[in-house]
């Protein structure tokens, strides 16, 4: 035992939490063993958080064990590798383990039984590689968080340009009932975990490392302490057994006393948290060059007579695992991927194991709580006492039930980790988490629709603008055409002017002639008037006088 | 007494000038209410509201010429959002404008049948159909708002509106359905 662990480390508490029955003993009696090679492997292209991978093989292609069959697309994504040698027999939609029960794109490989590896290129000395190159190797190996969320690991191992990683936390809590895959891994392969931990520490340049293990796993704590004895920067810390201590933010709180900010990440407070299984996978990728093609899966539940942990190739159908553990298919009432608190029921038994499958729980009717009638909320506040994130579950329930998406966000719905403590303690048996999941989905859908509407608005507006511009251009062309016929019009105008001038001249001549005639007449009259002795006024003034 | 009157008058003049300046300096161009109504509409540009697009409908609502229940693609959600914004009582969708669709749809061109007449391209309000005269046309499914406007003009009836299939990426948890018992 090293010095660090001999002194008592102060631990903090997170709010709430529950103590569900553990049921961990059943599956932790037998050692880990390899599941038999299945005849057919179904590899979903979307086994992680982020963008689905893109196939790089075609139907009929021969693939070797460990060969890339689908490449990562985009930053948050992970490639998929062939878990065994064989030939690609189909690429298309197949049922996948998802709460929807829908199908998704998969690559199907028929194994040839040879289990022939492709040429492996282990990293000689990872200490000589810069952290970025190390992250690349981990990315190419398709490693994602094996704790359950499946976030691509290489992203977590990027502390960014200025962020100093003070504490690296290795999560061996495994607080969810029934699941023992991390426990067994720590008991049997502690050296692999520590080797992986050293690599992750190198990539992050972290100062110290804490390995958090719930105190119900005394054997794992012992083996991990033995394996880490020679490293003074690692400390194995037993944490009190309390669900959900294995949730990232809660474990960080327990071990460091720090709280991950709302909408923030662990890295914001200088902490990175990784699962023990992930560390072992990193070790295999670096030291052996093996990509992530298998994982430890707990196969348990009342319908399984010999529950145990199997090392399973990704893509293996779950019913083969249940058969391997002497399962009774007819006794299965419900098959759950993950644990009873956070897992989800599957719609069929032959779905493939994916990178995030930590447990296959084949539950009988006796395992499941009898269907309880849902009663109205009595505002007892038990859910608020149990909530490990300090939310107000009954307020969230109230607003989610009324589909008031603004209000649920005001009550910080997105800080909810869906751990299920509130539903577990609810005396009215209200499925609270279902409401929160519904509300989250609703908000995401609306967000997406809003984005789509914005795009449609922009496209519509630019179309209107284009149409207006085209119209203006047509108008301009017409105007130009009009301008082209101007000379003719000018000629016509000139002619009209000429004609007018002529008319005017004619009129003037006429007037002149008339006035001349008048003058002549007046002269004649005046001459006769003089003879008769009358005045010589013009005839017009004569008229006026009259 | 006189000092108070003078002081108040000076204050009134100062604030008057300030307000006058602000009114000029911070004058809002356009009608912000129309923008806010427009941002709540689904932008399908389908014209089922009897206005030629979402923005004209938004303008009509702002002017009090149209009611808030004329948008079938938006359905109940949009009506409630509009009622919230305008502080009115929500009302059911006007059946004269159509019925709300449960599933979103996308236009699909049966490409071998397309004769390349460009009529659908001219009808599409968001330029989501790609093609040229006497060339095969196709729908950019991502940009299609499902407005139906391209179906009518097609002379060979090769456009159909197909429901968008739900996949694992767009799926969401359903609303919990169970009967709540009365407490005893």
Describe what this molecule looks like in 3D:
The complex is a heterodimer of chains A (546) and B (184). Among the domains of chain A are: 272 residues, 3-Layer(aba) Sandwich (Rossmann fold); 107 residues, no CATH class. In chain A, 39% of the residues lie in helices and 15% in strands. Chain A has 16 helices and 17 strands. Chain B has 184 residues and is mainly α. Among the domains of chain B are: 66 residues, 3-methyladenine DNA Glycosylase II, Chain A, domain 3 (Orthogonal Bundle); 59 residues, Alpha-Beta Plaits (2-Layer Sandwich). Chain B contains five helices and four strands. Chain B is elongated, with a radius of gyration of 25 Å. In chain B, 24% of the residues are buried. The chains are: A alpha/beta (546), B mainly alpha (184).
Please report the first level of CATH classification, the CATH class of the domain at 32-97 in chain B: Mainly Alpha
Q: What is the CA-based Rg of chain A, rounded?
A: 43 Å
For the largest sheet of chain B, list the strands in their spatial order. Answer: 1-4
- For the largest interface in this structure, which chains are involved and how many residues does each contribute? A-B, 37 and 32 residues
What percent of residues of chain A adopt helix (DSSP H or I)?
25-40%
Distance between the termini of chain A: 149 Å
What's the mean pLDDT score of chain A?
A: 89
CATH topology of the domain at 3-34 and 124-363 in chain A: Rossmann fold
Cα Rg of chain B: 25 Å
List the topology elements.
The complex is a heterodimer of chains A (546) and B (184).
Chain A: H1 3-6, E1 33-34, E2 40-44, E3 54-55, E4 62-63, E5 68-71, E6 80-81, E7 86-95, E8 103-111, H2 131-140, H3 153-156, E9 167-172, H4 181-188, H5 190-204, E10 208-214, H6 218-228, E11 234-239, H7 248-256, E12 271-275, H8 276-287, E13 294-300, E14 308-313, H9 318-324, E15 334-337, E16 344-345, E17 359-363, H10 382-386, H11 393-401, H12 405-410, H13 421-425, H14 432-484, H15 486-532, H16 539-545
Parallel strand pairs in A: 1-14, 9-10, 9-12, 10-11, 13-17
Antiparallel strand pairs in A: 2-8, 3-5, 4-7, 5-6, 7-8, 13-14, 15-16, 15-17
Helix pairs in contact in A: 2-5, 4-6, 5-8, 11-14
Chain B: H1 2-25, H2 32-40, H3 54-62, H4 75-86, E1 105-109, H5 119-123, E2 129-130, E3 138-139, E4 159-163
Antiparallel strand pairs in B: 1-4, 2-3
Helix pairs in contact in B: 2-3
């Amino acid at each position: 035992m090293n010095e660090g662990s001999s002194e008592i480390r102060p631990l903090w508490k997170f709010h709430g939490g529950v103590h569900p029955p553990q049921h961990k003993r059943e599956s932790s009696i037998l050692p880990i063993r390899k599941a038999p090679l299945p005849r057919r492997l179904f590899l979903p292209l979307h086994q992680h958080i982020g963008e689905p991978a893109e196939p790089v093989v075609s139907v009929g292609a021969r693939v070797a064990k460990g060969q890339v069959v689908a490449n990562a697309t985009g930053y948050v994504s992970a490639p998929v590798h062939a878990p065994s040698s064989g030939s690609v027999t189909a690429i298309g939609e197949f049922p996948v383990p998802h709460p929807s029960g829908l199908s998704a794109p998969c690559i199907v490989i028929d194994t040839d039984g040879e289990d022939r590896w492709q040429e492996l290129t282990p990293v000689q000395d990872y200490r000589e590689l810069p952290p970025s190159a190390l992250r690349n190797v981990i990315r190419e190996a398709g490693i994602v968080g094996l704790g359950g969320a499946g976030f691509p690991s290489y992203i977590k191992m990027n502390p960014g340009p200025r962020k100093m990683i003070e504490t690296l936390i290795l999560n061996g809590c495994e607080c969810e009932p029934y699941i023992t895959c991390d426990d067994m891994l720590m008991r049997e392969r502690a050296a692999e975990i520590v080797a992986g931990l050293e690599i992750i520490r190198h990539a992050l340049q972290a100062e110290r490392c804490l390995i958090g293990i719930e105190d119900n796993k005394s054997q794992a704590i012992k083996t991990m302490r033995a394996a880490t004895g020679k490293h003074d920067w690692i400390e194995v810390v037993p944490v009190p057994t309390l669900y959900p201590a294995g949730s990232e933010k809660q474990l960080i709180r327990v071990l460091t006393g720090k709280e991950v900010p709302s909408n923030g990440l662990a890295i914001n407070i200088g902490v990175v948290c990784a699962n023990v299984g992930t560390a072992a996978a990193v070790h295999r990728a670096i030291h052996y060059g093996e990509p992530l093609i298998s994982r430890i899966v707990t196969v348990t539940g009342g319908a399984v007579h010999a529950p145990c942990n199997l090392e399973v190739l990704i893509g293996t159908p779950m019913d083969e695992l249940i058969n391997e553990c002497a399962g009774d298919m007819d006794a299965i009432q419900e098959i759950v991927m993950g644990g009873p608190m956070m897992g989800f029921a599957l719609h069929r038994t032959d779905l493939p194991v994916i990178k995030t499958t930590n447990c296959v729980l084949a539950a009988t009717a006796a395992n499941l709580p009898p269907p309880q009638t849902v009663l109205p909320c009595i505002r007892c506040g038990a859910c608020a006492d149990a909530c490990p994130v300090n939310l107000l579950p009954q307020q969230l329930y109230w607003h989610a039930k009324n589909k008031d998406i603004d209000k649920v966000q005001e009550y910080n719905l997105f800080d909810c980790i869906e751990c299920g403590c509130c539903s577990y303690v609810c005396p009215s048996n209200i499925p609270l988490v279902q409401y929160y999941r519904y509300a989250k989905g609703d908000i995401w859908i609306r967000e997406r629709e809003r984005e789509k509407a914005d795009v449609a608005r922009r496209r519509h507006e630019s179309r209107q603008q284009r149409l207006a511009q085209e119209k203006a251009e047509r108008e301009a062309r017409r105007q130009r055409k009009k301008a082209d016929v101007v000379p003719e019009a000018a000629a016509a105008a000139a002619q009209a002017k000429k004609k007018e001038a002529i008319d005017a001249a004619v009129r003037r001549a006429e007037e002149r002639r008339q006035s001349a005639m008048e003058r002549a007449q007046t002269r004649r009259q005046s001459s006769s008037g003089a003879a008769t002795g009358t005045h010589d006024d013009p005839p017009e003034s004569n008229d006026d006088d009259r | 007494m006189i000092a108070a009157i003078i002081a108040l008058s000076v204050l009134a003049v100062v604030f008057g000038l300030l307000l006058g300046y602000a009114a000029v300096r911070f004058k809002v161009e356009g009608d912000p209410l129309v923008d806010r109504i427009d941002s709540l509409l689904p932008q399908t540009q389908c014209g089922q509201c009897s206005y030629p697009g979402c923005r004209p409908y938004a303008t009509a609502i702002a002017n009090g010429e149209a009611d808030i229940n004329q948008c079938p693609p938006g359905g109940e959600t949009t009506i409630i959002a509009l009622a919230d914004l305008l502080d009115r009582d929500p009302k059911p969708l006007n059946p004269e404008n159509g019925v709300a669709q449960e599933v979103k749809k996308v236009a699909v061109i049966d490409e071998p049948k397309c004769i390349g007449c460009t009529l659908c391209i001219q009808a599409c309000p968001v330029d989501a159909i790609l093609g040229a005269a006497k060339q095969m046309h196709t729908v950019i499914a991502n940009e299609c708002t499902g407005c139906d406007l391209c179906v009518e003009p097609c002379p060979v009836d090769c456009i159909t509106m197909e429901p968008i299939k739900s996949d694992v990426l767009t799926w969401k948890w359903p609303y919990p359905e169970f009967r709540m018992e009365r407490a005893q």
